[in-house]
Design a protein that fits this description.
Blueprint (H helix, E strand, L loop, with lengths): L5 H15 L4 H23 L14 H9 L5 E5 L4 E4 L6 E5 L2 E9 L7 E3 L5 E4 L8 E9 L5 E10 L4 E3 L1 E4 L5 E2 L5 E5 L6 H6 L1 E6 L5 E5 L3 E5 L9 E7 L4 E3 L2 E3 L2 E8 L3 E6 L4 E6 L2 E7 L12 E4 L2 E9 L10 E10 L6 E5 L17 E4 L10 H7 L6 E5 L19 H4 L2
Parallel strand pairs: 2-8, 9-18, 11-19, 20-28, 26-27
Antiparallel strand pairs: 1-3, 3-6, 4-7, 5-6, 7-8, 10-12, 12-15, 13-16, 14-15, 16-19, 17-18, 20-21, 21-22, 23-28, 24-25, 25-26
Pathway: Cell wall biogenesis; peptidoglycan biosynthesis
Keywords: Acyltransferase, Cell shape, Cell wall biogenesis/degradation, Membrane, Peptidoglycan synthesis, Transferase, Transmembrane, Transmembrane helix
Protein name: Ig-like domain-containing protein
Length: 425
């Protein structure tokens, strides 16, 4: 700095710049060594090697580690029926199994995306559907299994179920969306006799809100009724699912229905006919609302005892004795306010041909319960008209103190006459 001109600094800077491009020989060798060391570190990080043993950071070293990571899964998925199969039976054919591993996912669905419920076994070795399959339907199966090292293997297949040549359906009551009385069972009558009742009953689901146990009982081989132990509670909503499509009800005969219906329980009305006293007491929601004089079955044609459910209502109907075993004893073409209580012909109905003094004093009918009425049923003040207008399908009519036997549970919708212990057998 001592007296050197300012311009000398500028010249010296240029010289220093040139000097910086010519590093000492020893320094250059040091930089090369440092770069080589960095490359070695980088190679170690990417390759996973390191340490004096020469093994990688995984459980298996060197070349073995790469082979494990890229090896195929030992799990093998097998699906029956085979891919592309046609005319497949709707029950007992679909199975998914795994060997060398465990099933983790099984999904079966039809062309509309509806899934088939099923369950993988506890050991993961197999899967089977919870229910039968539908007929004439294409299904897709997707299954995944995993081996002990966590490697997955998948399989996808399709197949089509058979087209049934012989079929059956179930005619049911009550009607969808209806409001019925507390005694109304679900009653299903099949168009073909069923020889595998367990399979058919399993395909029908009856649920109630509020919840209550509901059980089915077979009457013969073509009728299945469902009811709770006691009368339904007022306001209960009952839903019935008929998953009969594809059910083999008898050899070579398959169901075709897949539908749901529901109904609601209305107010409680139970009417008790005392055949000896010739009166009927109507109780609604636990309170007596009316007592009506009646005429029941004559001594030679008594009325059944027991709990009976109103299954049909007719403002006017024809009653012909020949249809119920009484020959030509009567044929009345305009019986008013008639409500069916049994399949065999028991009704509670209006009676205009007996004198007014008969009701409450004598039993003169052929087994029905008669209430005073007028021909044509036009007078709403008559006892028969009042009872007809205040009754709904599913209401209960109980007959007691008649000199007859108890009505059979299958004679009408009258399963309430069977003890619960027998119903659930």
């Amino acid at each position: 700095m001592n007296g050197q001109p300012i311009s000398g600094a500028s010249a010296g800077g240029a010289g220093e710049e040139r000097a910086s491009r010519r590093r000492p020989r020893g320094l250059r060798h040091g930089l090369v060594a440092l770069a080589a060391s960095a490359l070695l570190v980088l190679a170690t990080a990417c390759g996973g090697g390191g340490g004096s043993s020469g093994k990688g950071s995984g459980e298996k070293g060197g070349k073995d580690a790469g082979k494990v990571e890229n090896a195929a899964s030992r799990a093998v998925v097998t699906i029956a029926p085979k891919d592309g199969a046609e005319a497949v039976d709707t029950s007992g054919t679909l199975k998914v199994t795994a060997s060398g591993g465990k099933l983790t996912t099984v999904k079966v669905q039809d062309d509309e995306g509806v899934e088939v419920a099923g369950k993988i076994s506890e050991d993961g070795a197999s899967w089977q559907p919870a229910m039968h399959l539908a007929g004439a339907t294409k299904y897709r199966v997707h299954a995944v299994a995993k081996d002990a090292e966590g490697r997955e293997s998948a399989k996808d297949t399709t197949f089509t179920t058979l087209v049934p040549k012989n079929t059956f359906i179930g005619h049911y009551t009550p009607e969808d969306g209806s409001t019925v009385g507390v005694g109304m069972p679900v009653s299903i009558n099949f168009t073909r006799g069923i020889t595998d009742p367990e399979a058919v009953e399993k395909a029908i689901e009856v649920t109630a809100q509020p919840s209550v146990p509901v059980e089915g009982h077979w009457f013969g081989n073509d009728r299945l009724d469902f009811r709770p132990e006691k009368y339904w509670a007022t306001g209960t909503k009952v839903t019935v699912k008929l998953n009969l499509d594809g059910v083999e009800g008898r050899p070579g005969v398959y169901g075709t229905q897949a539908k749901s219906f529901s109904f609601t329980i209305g107010r409680s009305q139970v009417s008790t006919v005392d055949a000896a006293a010739r009166t009927m007491t109507v109780v609604r929601d636990g309170k007596t609302i009316k007592t009506v004089p009646v005429t029941a079955g004559a001594p030679s044609t008594t009325t059944y005892n027991g709990q009976m459910v109103i299954s049909e209502k007719y403002k006017v109907t024809r009653m012909n004795g020949a249809t119920v075993g009484f020959g030509g004893e009567y044929d009345i073409k305009d019986v008013p306010h008639a409500m069916r209580l049994s399949t065999s012909g028991t009704f509670i109905h209006g009676n205009y041909w007996a004198s007014a003094g008969t009701f409450g004093s004598a039993n003169v009918s052929h087994g029905c319960v008669g209430l005073r009425d007028v021909r044509g049923g036009y007078d709403g003040n008559m006892p028969a008209a009042w009872f007809f207008n205040n009754s709904i399908i599913g209401d209960v009519v109980i007959v007691k103190n008649s000199k007859d036997k108890q009505i059979q549970p299958a004679n009408g919708l009258n399963g309430w006459n069977m003890p619960w212990s027998q119903w659930v057998e």
